[in-house]
Write a structure and sequence with these properties.
This protein is of the alpha+beta class. It has 11 helices and 4 strands. It has 2 domains: 2-207 and 278-308; 212-275, no CATH class.
């Protein structure tokens, strides 16, 4: 059993932050129990008969929990990065307690590496558990408004990108904590940087793969080419020259009378969209970008500690 126990600087890090290490499994366990109970006691009113109103009320409560959890979970990497930057790295550099570790036959690289490893392991397993718990409830309400696979919050909470963002938070916290060496400023800057990456990639992720285009005769309403399970893009008409033009070039009565503007020859209507099959490729591309950024930040952090404490 002794071989399974943490030793050296890893044991020190675990002892220093034991409250957080105990709080993580406790919160995950409570969340899992609550999600199982809500899922067991709820029924979807659209697809399952309701024997009692309480079952619908539980289903609606589950839907609200999933909705607000999806809006909250993207902030988890900011919290992870702030904890690593402040309490784990900057506070020890600010107070000078890191020098005590160097007197215990521990190098500066090993001191920093122990913090990174403990934080990374907890972040990976914790975020994976949260993804599993969230998906357990989400599959029950995924067909409802604001909870489709492409929605902001749901997308981050149901796939590996959440793990990637948490690891990026660990890496940025390690680097920023060393650069700033002040607890609160380091926490604020790390949270800001992690949030900035979250916003930028959130704006770019739907350009990682080209959209699929569906076409039909111009008398067909473009919106009818789309289903609720796809992420919608542009819609409109296609002229004989291949130019895409707005749908209002044809009158609403075009479907029955078959006429459009006289100065435009329209041949078809179109709709661009991301099908649900794009979910995993986009998730993996974004996760790869996050892991590359995290690796670069960690490389810079260890180069910095090696330069300052050769």
């Amino acid at each position: 059993m002794s071989t399974l126990m943490l030793k050296g600087p890893y044991w020190v890090v675990a002892c220093q932050h034991r409250r957080v290490l105990w709080a993580v499994p406790a919160l995950l366990g409570a969340s899992l129990i609550a999600m199982i109970a809500l899922r067991a006691w709820s029924r979807n009113p659209e697809f399952e008969p309701i024997d009692a109103s309480v079952e619908y009320e539980v289903w609606e409560f589950l839907r609200l929990c999933i909705m607000y959890s999806g809006r909250t979970l993207p902030f988890l990497p900011l919290l992870v990065g702030a904890l690593v930057a402040g309490p784990m790295v900057a506070r020890e550099l600010e107070s000078g307690t890191w020098r005590l570790a160097l007197t215990q036959s521990t190098t500066a690289k090993a001191w920093l590496g122990s913090k990174v490893l403990v934080a990374a392991v907890v972040s990976v397993f914790g975020s994976l558990a949260l993804i599993g718990i969230y998906r357990l409830g989400w599959v029950r309400v995924s067909d409802t408004s604001s909870l489709h696979w492409y929605e902001r919050g749901v997308y981050e909470a149901t796939g590996p990108v959440l793990v990637g963002y948490c690891l990026l938070g660990v890496a940025l916290g390690t680097l920023v904590g060393q650069l700033i060496r002040r607890t609160l400023p380091a926490m604020a800057v790390t949270g800001l940087l992690t949030g900035l990456v979250l916003l930028v990639l959130g704006a770019l992720r739907w350009s990682f793969l080209p959209m699929v285009t569906a076409t039909a005769p111009y008398t067909v309403e473009p919106e009818s080419l789309l289903s609720s399970s796809v992420k919608r893009g542009g819609t409109g008409l296609i002229s004989t020259t291949g130019e895409r033009i707005p749908g209002y070039y044809c009158a609403p009565e075009a479907e029955t009378r078959g006429f459009c503007r006289a100065d435009v020859d329209v041949t078809a209507s179109y709709a661009d969209f991301h099908p649900s099959s794009h979910y995993w490729p986009i998730q993996l591309i974004e996760t790869s970008i996050l892991l590359a950024l995290a690796a670069a930040a960690l490389y810079a952090a260890f180069r910095l500690v090696r330069k300052r404490h050769p």
